[in-house]
């Protein structure tokens, strides 16, 4: 027997697993990477060596209104390290700059003050001007153009009015945008719901290039990069983090080329070859990425790439915040035919995309390939509405999986952190 441990909220979920039926363990090499520098020094070095851009303090010179886009409470961006360094650089170039930190909530719920303090620290929350983006507040938004796909490009007015627009973020594999970070600060980060819905349409989500680790030819990425350029996102600071949420690498500079450089670094560490199995066990990387079912779909896509058709995915995600989206939940509550749901989404015109359709579409795709057993703190009735099977722990989940498969010796692939790997 071997003891396995998976991230679960702010804790770990452990179990004993029979090694004889384990096909393999898919892990990123990030944990083996030693940057041999402190987290602060890594970010400082990136700021001093920007990619295809002047330095941040140089860009700040003569700029009155400066807006820094920051990730929200659902992202483990180490803002306590990044934000003070960015603020210092901006003020070194322009001590009189009027700086606003704009929280990029995208389509998520608004970030609370307590979550901001946890993210930035009390000093920044008390001293700096912070505005939380609301994608549904039409009065705070402005149209600046049309996306390549034809959708309206509408963003937060504070960003549009900025003399200098910059952002912080982190780069991880993303299940339909290829990678997070860079251009995503603008779309979906500070975009209108109208713009997000047009970009996250059924046609794009179904596109074969809209997959983890893929940017080239990805229609969502093309729209997103266009939006960042149109919004005049002048400078990004993006980091790569390990499972302890520590910075191991950073890039800064142009929102396209700096981000691309960061993606290449990450890809060199987290690309793994699928080991097909009847049962695949995975997680969503723990807090803050596993706060709800909506976010946990990301980790499931790693298992989707490794599970055999008709197999079982065991998903470990605390989901203490519930489902994560009313529309996402109601889609499954109201439609029990997964095949019909999937077909309807692919045929839905871009301008008729409904909120959270993309997440439902991807979960439906996964459920059409495999059964999902879900270990969480969410109500069992809620899990069942998503046509998943609830379980209390890994032992119970494995028992249910073997019963589904009618095979006590079904072989297993373990992916300890589903959002940290690109399964090819």
From TrEMBL:
Q: What is this protein called?
A: Nickel-dependent lactate racemase
Question: What is the gene called?
Answer: larA
Lactate racemase C-terminal domain sequence ranges: 272-423
- InterPro entries listed in its UniProt record: LarA-like, LarA-like_C, LarA-like_N, LarA_C, Ni_dep_LarA
**Ranges of residues in domain LarA-like N-terminal:** 8-213
Q: Name one GO molecular function term.
A: lactate racemase activity
């Amino acid at each position: 027997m071997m003891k396995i441990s998976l991230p679960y909220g702010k804790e770990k979920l452990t179990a004993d697993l029979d090694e004889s039926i384990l096909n393999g363990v898919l892990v990123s090499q990030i944990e083996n990477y030693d940057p041999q520098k402190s987290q602060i020094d890594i970010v400082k070095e990136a700021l001093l060596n920007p990619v295809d851009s002047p330095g941040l303090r140089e860009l700040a010179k003569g700029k009155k209104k400066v807006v820094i886009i920051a990730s929200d409470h659902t992202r483990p961006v180490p803002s306590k390290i990044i934000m003070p360094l960015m603020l210092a650089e901006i003020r070194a170039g322009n001590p009189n700059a009027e700086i606003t930190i704009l929280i990029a909530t995208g389509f998520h719920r608004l970030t609370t003050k307590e979550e901001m303090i946890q993210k930035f620290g009390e000093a920044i929350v008390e001293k700096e001007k912070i505005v939380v983006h609301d994608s549904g507040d039409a009065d705070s938004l402005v149209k600046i153009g049309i996306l390549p796909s034809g959708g309206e490009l509408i963003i937060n007015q504070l960003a549009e009015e900025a003399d200098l627009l910059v952002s912080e973020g982190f780069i991880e594999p993303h299940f339909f945008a290829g990678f997070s970070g860079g251009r995503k600060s603008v779309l979906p980060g500070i975009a209108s719901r109208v713009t997000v819905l047009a970009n996250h349409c059924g046609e794009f989500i179904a596109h074969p290039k809209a997959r983890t680790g893929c940017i080239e030819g990805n229609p969502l990425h093309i729209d997103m990069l266009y939006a960042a350029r149109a919004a005049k996102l002048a400078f990004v600071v993006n980091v790569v983090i390990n499972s302890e949420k520590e910075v191991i690498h950073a890039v800064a500079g142009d929102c396209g080329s700096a981000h691309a450089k960061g993606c290449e670094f990450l890809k060199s560490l987290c690309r793994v070859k699928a080991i097909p199995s009847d049962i695949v066990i995975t997680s969503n990387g723990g807090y803050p990425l596993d706060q709800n079912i909506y976010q946990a779909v990301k980790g499931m896509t790693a298992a989707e790439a490794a599970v055999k058709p008709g197999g079982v995915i065991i998903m470990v995600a605390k989901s203490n915040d519930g489902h994560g989206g009313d529309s996402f939940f109601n889609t499954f509550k109201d439609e029990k035919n997964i095949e019909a749901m999937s077909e309807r989404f692919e045929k839905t015109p871009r301008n008729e995309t409904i909120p959270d359709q993309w997440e439902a579409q991807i979960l439906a795709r996964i459920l059409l390939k495999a059964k999902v057993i879900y270990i969480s703190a969410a109500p069992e009735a809620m899990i069942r509405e998503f046509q998943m099977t609830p379980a209390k722990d890994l032992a119970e989940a494995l028992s249910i999986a073997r019963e589904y498969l009618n095979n006590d010796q079904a072989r297993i692939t373990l992916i300890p952190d589903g959002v940290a790997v690109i399964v090819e």
